[in-house]
Amino acid sequence: MNTSAPAPAHHLAQLNIATLRAPLDDPSMKDFTDALDPINALADASPGFVWRFIEDGEKDATNLRPFGEDLLLNFSVWEGVDALWNFAYRTEHLDFLRRRREWFEHMREAYMVLWWIPSGTIPTVEEAKRRLDLLRANGPTPEAFDLRTPFPAPTHHDQHA
């Protein structure tokens, strides 16, 4: 008898953006930039991690600025909300989250968005922008939500936005 669980039909896409307080080569950003490789490696090795957006030939996406020159992005896919939560709040990543105001400006509007995608697909930056705009315009919905107000993965009866 096969006791393994079936593969999930959906994965969780995650985008967050942050406005830099200083250029990445500024001495005030050293702790942040020094942590990029180890924290990215921790994410990559975390249970439930699926994918993260990186620049071709690079280890991260810090040179890519599709949201604006001063905006960094973190864009990834996870097996589900619990996997993302556990990485963000139950690993060394939390230490850097707590220090985010040292490196990034406070953003008044939503800067993180989550949404469900069919397993095996990779979301685009354009879709991520659209989902963030949806969250900002409508608040949390099944099409665009945050960790405070998560929505369950769609069932096969649900329509995908």
If you had to describe this structure to a student in words, what would you say it looks like?
With 161 residues, this protein is of the alpha+beta class. The chain starts with 9 loop residues before the first strand and ends in a 23-residue tail after the last helix. The longest helix is centred in the N-terminal third of the chain and has 16 residues. The chain has a single domain, classed as Alpha-Beta Plaits, CATH 3.30.70.100. The radius of gyration is 16 Å and the shape is globular. 19% of the residues are buried. It contains 5 helices and 4 strands. It has a 4-stranded antiparallel beta sheet, sandwiched between helices.
Give a short summary of the structure.
This protein is 31% helix and 18% strand. The protein has 161 residues and is of the alpha+beta class. The chain has a four-stranded antiparallel sheet, with helices on both faces.
Q: Could you name the key traits of this structure?
A:
161 residues, alpha+beta, Alpha-Beta Plaits, four-stranded antiparallel beta sheet, 5 helices, 18% strand, globular
- Helices and strands: which structural class? alpha+beta
CATH class placement: Alpha Beta
For the termini, the CA-CA separation is 37 Å
Oligomer: single chain
- Rg from alpha-carbon coordinates: 16 Å
- Note the total helix count: 5
- Average pLDDT score: 93
CATH architecture: 2-Layer Sandwich
Estimate the helix proportion, in percent. 25-40%
Side-by-side strand order of the widest sheet? 2-3-1-4
Stretches where pLDDT is under 50 for at least 5 consecutive residues are none
Order of helices and strands: EHEEHHHEH
Number of domains: 1
User: How many strand segments?
Assistant: 4
Q: Profile the largest sheet.
A: 4 strands, antiparallel
CATH topology: Alpha-Beta Plaits
Based on Cα principal axes, name the global outline.
Answer: globular
Q: Percent of residues in beta strands?
A: 15-25%
